[in-house]
Amino acid sequence: MSWAIVDIANFYVSAERLFDPALRDVPVIVLSNNDGCAIARSEEAKALHVRMGDPVFKMRDRIKRHGIQLRSSNYELYADLNRRFNAVIADHSDMAQSAPSCDFGQVGERFGNVAFGIDDGNHRRGQFAPS
Questions:
Q1: Mind listing the GO molecular function terms for this protein (predicted)?
Q2: Does an H or E element contain 70, and which?
């Protein structure tokens, strides 16, 4: 029996970076509805002590001082990319057939009792290498 978790790190930020490569390697915060507070942070933003739920008005100086990039949340984009992510996982594993042993986690995350068709020696963290 094999267990796997497939997780896209900082999914909302990763989605924003996919469509705006200028956001790579810079601090990014994705904001809640009405752009009131932080709901997702890049690793760079986390290193600047930005916490989930921090209100934007309390971070204005830090945002300016460190060049933190802000993005409004785009739930349609995230849902579409999550559907694509799950389709890729289903195409390259038996996760789709393993229900109910397989479950969806948060957006950008899937886990379960699976047997991947991937040679463990040919991939590493952060890469997907279908056989």
A1: DNA-directed DNA polymerase activity
A2: strand 69-72
